[in-house]
Every structure is written in C-alpha cells, then in structure tokens.
Amino acid sequence: MSIVAVLPARYAATRFPGKLMQLLGDKTVIRRTYEAAQASGLFDEVLVATDSDVIRAEVESFGGAVAMTRADHESGTDRIAEAVADRDVDIVVNVQGDTPFINKGALQQLLALFEDPTVQVASLMDRISEESDLQNPNVVKVVTDLKGNSLLFSRSLLPYPRSTDIDIPHYRHIGVYAFRKSALLQFTQWPMTPLEAAEKIECLRFLEHGIPLRMALTEPIGVDINTPEDLERAQREIERENREQGTIEQGMNK
Q1: Burial of 203 per CB tally in 10 Å (0-12, 13-18, 19+)
Q2: Half-sphere exposure of 116 (CA within 13 A, CB side)
Q3: How far is CA 12 from CA 18, 51, 125, 146, in A?
Q4: Domains in the chain and their CATH numbers?
Q5: pTM
Q6: Contact 123, 178 (CB under 8 A)
Q7: What is the pLDDT of residues 129-165, one digit of tens each?
C-alpha cells in the first residue's frame, strides 16, 4: 500500500500571515513539520503543496519535495487533491504545515485505522485538559459515536455540559487527516457545504455528505501554530527540548 504525506502550505494565512516561514529555534515552522513527517519513516514520499514561491524556495533549500498548486483553492484538502491527482497512491495523509511537533506514534495510530476497509477518512483527537481551551474558538472540538466515528466538529463548546453531574470528556480535533485517494478526490467535486462555511472547518464537508471520519484518540502532539501566541508557546517548547537534549548529551560525555 502506497502512503504519501502532503503538507498544504499557504503563505497568506488569515489569522497569522507568513506563519510557516517563522523561525522555531534555527528552523522555519514548515521545515520542522516536514522533517518530523519524514523522520517518522511511515511514508513513501513527503511533499509540500503550495502556491507560494517563498515557501517553495524554503522547502527546496533543505532538499524537500514541492508541488506547486493553484492559488484559488478554498481549503488545504483541495490543494492536496490537486497535488496527488496524478500520483499512484492509496492513502494520502494531510500533515498541516503548522504542526511542527507531529510524531511517529500519532501517525501510526492514524494509519492503523485503515485496517478497517470501511474507513474512508480518518483523523486524530486528544482530550482537552485546559478550561480555557473549551471556550477558545481556535480549538476545534469533536464528538464521536461509540465506534469512534465523528458526529460533529465545532469551534463552540461541544458537547455542552447541561448535566453537571456527568463527567463527560471533551476532545480537541488535531488537524491531521488521512484519506483513501478516492475519498479525497470525491471531496473536491462537492461545493462548500453550509456547516463548513459557517464554522470554517473543512472536514464538515465530509459529514454533510454522510461520510464520517474515524477518529483515533492520541496523546497531545504539542503546539500547532495558529496565532503569534502559539508561536511563542512553541518557542518555549523548542527551548525546553534543547535543554533536555543538552542535559542528555552532557550525561553521556561524563
């Protein structure tokens, strides 16, 4: 089975333009994400799909693969579909370009969901532990059925805790998707749907056409970069990792 990871990369992001070119330590966000996907060893190819010459030059500077796409795509999923349309591939994984801390364990969980032949689209979620995240519209929430199929995604609090005596978990949608190629190409044939347009959550297009996403519950994968504040948090995480690595190396040299 052929598996390709594609990083949709748009320079002019609405909330944080140019975020993929921001430095995290000594590397750009897009480079760290690309190298994390590549280091997993799970993919036959890792590819950046972009309409930006700036991002293309950055990726080519570190030896990465780039597919140039149209500038008028409504979503990252549409951009990925253009990039893989003529490629011989079975599973396509959308690794958002702003997820520099993506790791092999989470990606393995995602790909394992396709052992069920009925799964057409899959994604990741983790449990929300911070109260502030429940009310944050930048944190997309998801609820699932008992089999792990998504029922709804929303930027609002979901589910609403009407009964306060029930300890109901809340889950954050992690924006890493995997598709069978046929489902991905089908997505591009549908116009934007009402819930998708209202929430600005592209995977709602699948739900509105009756295709659930099979969700894997994983551990938090670290900060994804949506705002300048997220970048500051990611910088602190990189600094912490560097300190820990330095401590380990010092111990080995003793």
Answers
A1: buried
A2: 16
A3: 6, 10, 26, 39
A4: 3-253 (3.90.550.10)
A5: 0.89
A6: yes
A7: 999 999 999 899 999 999 999 999 999 999 998 888 8
